[in-house]
Known about the structure:
The protein has twelve helices and no strands. The protein has about 220 residues and is mainly alpha-helical.
Amino acid sequence: MALSISEVALLLEQEYGSPVGWWSAETPFEVAVGAILTQRTSWANVESSIDALKREGLLTPSRLVDAGGAKVEMLVRRTGFYRQKSKYLLELASYVQDEYGGDLLNMSRRPQYQLREELLKLRGVGPETADSILLYALSMPSFVVDAYTTRFLARLGLDLGQGYDSIKQSFESAFENDSARLSKAHALIVIHCKSRCRTIPVCNGCPLLCSCRLEAEQKE
Length: 220
Ligand code: SF4
């Protein structure tokens, strides 16, 4: 039985409840910093580096730019690729400072498509990072297609077309460009992939068992 995206999200919500404070951060800029630091590392390492930046009072664009590369490198070291990530953070901070008066929320004044284009021009900001900033820092309806989502959809056999943009648009259309519904759907997929649909999935008892292609293939 093939399910729609909304039906999948509903079943996941029935299983895990509504995710509350899933991407917790004190400011939108902290969300953006987390979106860059989370590349190729665990969230625990990101939290540790964000705490270190916070302790030094550097979680504003101007303070980060003033701190300079060597200091930022030292503080984000735990996330790996720290030299690159330090450069990416400084570029993001300069961009927010120069273009938006140092307040990331001022970005909301630009149309989403234009903002996304701008973000994608920054070093270290690919589609997933740009969409994380738009969705979680600015509450704009821009779905994040991460590795969890891609693996989950492939296992489930939900065909949303090929490539990042096709999957993104399918979610945005299914959830009527509602940022709250999109962030909830993304959070539920990540929660499901961390708790059950892991590298080696724990399918027994999965709420999607009856409609999962991987499960059906394993039975053959
Ligand atoms: S049945 Fe297994 S593979 Fe399919 S969604 Fe559930 S956990 Fe993932």
